[in-house]
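Cross-posting from the modeling subforum.

Setting up a comparison between two proteins and wanted a second pair of eyes on the formatting. Protein 1 (sequence, then structure tokens):
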Amino acid sequence: MNKPKSPGQDFLPDFASLSNALRIIFLALIIAAIITIGRNATFDERAWQDLNLLTAFALMISFVSIIVLKLAHPFIRRLSLVKGSIVVFLLLLGAIALGTELVIFGLYDLGLISSRWPSWHVALLARSLLIGAIISALGLRYLIVSHRAEADSRSEQEARLQALQSRIRPHFLFNSMNSIASLTRSDPARAEIALQDLADLFRVLLADARNLVPISAEREISRQYLEIEKLRLGDRLKVSWNVSNVPRSALIPALTLQPLLENAIYHGIEPRFNGGTLKIELWAEGDYLSVLISNPLPEAANHRSSKGNKIAQENIRQRLNTHFGSAATMQTFEEGKQYHVKLKMPIVRG
């Protein structure tokens, strides 16, 4: 049985990570530079010697600290925030003492000092521990606050993704249920298939929004959604798929296509007396996947408000940005009495 985590454990950073190791080294170099500037009025040859010596001293202590923290990480990660912080602080003081002794030994071994135990040995060790204690306390506080901020940011991002994915217009559910209800007597088999399609769609809707899904699965969910809409619109809804050289292992955010298809039907196909053709094109361009969804413009220019359309499009835009950042784009434009939505995102392979 796994030991339950304590409330504070989630806010202890991974001291064995490369990013934290680089932070420790960078902090050590900054401190060496600050001490050098404080000790020298002018930046002459002596100042350069001071900088070289202090840099070597700081790097030795930082490397020892990193090794100690990495070795102790499996133990530290099981502790609470308070206990873990105390242990890390004490380990850093021990690393500073060890690093100081190694530097003195190195100077003696290189012949730069005449005694293994010089008269200033104790004073240097005491100053190193005092300065190290202050810096360790401040640095540890910074790492914990930084880690907490990153964790909060990830949690907020995951919650936003889940909320964005969970938005589905109620009218689709009501219309679908009404269409299925009308089939229960006239065509029970078709009604059963439609219910299964609707269940699959909502299963995806309630899934973890942080995960990407294969493009083949997204196409299948889109097909199921369109089959449900065909129950309501009949021959007024025609669908044309054109898929070219898209890797089957490519991954995209779940329910990326469905809201855009719903918009195309609700704002383009449904208002038209004779309906129209909904076109979905997917193709690969180098390391990017492109999606183009096109629908005829409604016959009456102001037949439907575009507010719902913009909300759904902004939803998709935010989700793409959350997953891919600036590498993904979304464009909307009108051309040839058609309304187009074009998506472009990096190809992520499963």
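Protein 2 (same layout):
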Amino acid sequence: MADLLGRGRRIAETADRLSHAFQRELARVLQDTERALQPILRRALDGDRTEQVRGARGLALRRELRDALARAGYDRLADTATSQAVAQMAETVLATRIGQGAVRLVQPDARKLFALIEIGRTNLLQVGDDTAAAIWRSTTSWVFSARSTNDILDDLFEAIDEDVGALHTLFDTQVSMFGRQVEALATADLPADQPFLYVGPNDKRNRPFCREHVGQVLTRDRIEALDNGQLPNPFVTGGGYNCRHSWLAVESQELRDIVNTGARAPEFAGVA
């Protein structure tokens, strides 16, 4: 049991470390993005504003905005951050001990790990596309405003800053999902009655789903039938956005005795 708790803690710590690194790099990319966007948006807003958004100019502006985001390093961040996240989460999950409460995991196929990278990367790049489109829509709307260019730019960049929180939540959620997906791939060949312990932090940040299920031992079919109220299939998505918990395969008889009963493992007996 101590081994499982240690694994859960290390998985959560790895996710937190990746999150902080992404947040720091994202802040730098956004600073570079604002510098890159300044001249583009000024050209769109200054002078004859109506003329600036006619015909192909509107679409050209949208492409310019997306290119500026790429030049600022956003696409590179999506690539490197996702690759590192999958690699480090897989390494942490697969650093498996053979001891009480832990079962041997099978190394997932490299192609399936690559698929995780591609899915995560595509999700982050889509946010970049959506951000450029949102800036473009806002800019073409502001073109017909009587407000000063500086005031409009302030509003645009404030809106970009507000989107950062959503992007960070997406990355954090994906990182934790990578860990659960690796565990799912590595335990795919285990029997249908294989139990999994829901392990991770027990603190005030836990959402209701996690408070209810942390420390419980369930079979995969029971887990997949749960509803976290946010994302489908809790075996992969856990408690939803920003969840820090993991479903880890167990073998100890002590934990098998409480599978699918709703009871908690002894170490979680005091959870309210």
